[in-house]
Fold this sequence. Notes:
Keywords: ATP-binding, Cell membrane, Kinase, Membrane, Nucleotide-binding, Phosphoprotein, Transferase, Transmembrane, Transmembrane helix, Transport, Two-component regulatory system
Structural class: alpha+beta
Radius of gyration: 44 Å
Order of helices and strands: HHHEEHHHEEEHHEHEEHEEHHEEE
Strand content: 15-25%
Distance between the termini: 101 Å
Oligomer: single chain
Bound molecules: adenosine-5'-diphosphate
Largest sheet: 5 strands, antiparallel
CATH architecture of the largest domain: 2-Layer Sandwich
Protein name: histidine kinase
CATH superfamily of the largest domain: Histidine kinase-like ATPase, C-terminal domain
Catalytic activity: ATP + protein L-histidine = ADP + protein N-phospho-L-histidine
CATH topology of the largest domain: Heat Shock Protein 90
Strand order of the largest sheet: 2-1-5-4-3
Pfam families: HATPase_c, HisKA, PhoR
Organism: Candidatus Accumulibacter appositus
Helix content: 40-55%
Amino acid sequence: xxxxxxxxxxxxLRSVLPIGGLALLAGFSHGPAWGWAIAALGWLLLVFMxxxxxxxxxxxxxxxxxxxxxxxxxxxxVWGEVLGKLAxxxxxxxxxxxxxxxxxxxxxxAMDAVPDGLVILDAGHRIQWSNRAAGAHLGIRLPRDDGxxxxxxxxxxxxxxxxxxxxxxxxxxxxxPAARTRVYTIRVVPLGDANKLVVSLDVTDAxxxxxxxxTFVANxxxxxxxPLTVVSGFLxxxxxxxxxxxxxxxxxxxxxxxxxxxxxxxxxxxxTLSRLEAEDAPASEEDVDMADLLAQLRAxxxxxxxxxxxxxxxxxxxxxxxxxxxxxxxxxxLVSNAIRYTPAxxxxxxxxxxxxxxxxxxxxDSGVGVAAEHLPRLTERFYRVDRGRSRxxxxxxxxxxxxxxxxxxxxxxxxxESEVGAGSTxxxxxxxxxxSPGK
Length: 439
Ligand code: ADP
């Protein structure tokens, strides 16, 4: 027997029958008046006892929070069982709530760690929940903005219309006024019957890379197009037998060979740059004899200068630990720039010295110099102060970008001092651990 009938049977057995039995016994032995008196007293006691238990249960139910675990209330008989079962149910519920809260906590933590912004909106576009990234992207802060209509917070033109007719196949591009430099894409996903999930993605870096890539492609195409146009123009003359005499042919052939050499230099520089960008560190390193390297740089500089400049070379430092080929390429670029941007009769000093614990390679020229506003951009690919002068001297616009990468791979720092009309000094400072004293 289970359920209410079992409780009723227990009630009969434990309360009604003992009182009835006692009353019958008293009635038979002392007369009916005693029997009725004992029965009335017993019933009164029973009602009083149940009244007390009932009051205790009501007080206990009032005091216990739904999330709280509790002790079994002390009570005997039927009430003890009832209260025990209630307490057990309460404890089960509290345990389940604890589990749900723990899971909710780890879920919220995981959602906060997601780099994409997530916002849940109800049918009226009121904010129900959002993660941390949504705060950075859309300026939403909980609990401050709990229940606020999202269009009141994000006032970018077009956002409200997009939200109203969201087409999740095409995102909305958003620039938050407070952070104009950052770009986000917004998508809206239906959630349940009427709710919406707004997902924001920070695409600033991807857009910057994309714009750099297309600028780079445009620059390379432009750099190759000029010599190719010259070569193809001359080739047309070559096809026309009567249009050019032998002397002109020789001259055109020389000009075409100059343009081809220019294209080859450009392609070489591009390959060098892409190799440097693809690898994190030089393939091999050694102690580079700087006196030897500087002698090589002097010979190459003299050949490029063709006697138009006075070259001074000073070597006062120890051997430098690094990749010889890369160091030669970086230092050679600085020397070649100094010669190309210094008018005839100018002076160029190439120096290697140990100073303040670091090794400094410097190239100082008395050339055209660079205005201060150009200095921060000189190491950008294809950045030139004077395009005509750079091209005229065989420059590709990639020399200093190559220098910057090689120095980075050798933990060296490039500094530039320059004054228009007075000359420039390019300094590469290497950390002390790259110096090999005694060599
Ligand atoms: P380029 O092939 O044009 O020389 P670089 O990357 O080597 O390309 O140099 C970028 C620009 O920096 C040059 O176009 C030039 O305007 C400037 N520059 C570099 N070195 C010097 C220098 N020694 N004196 C003056 N300007 C220089």
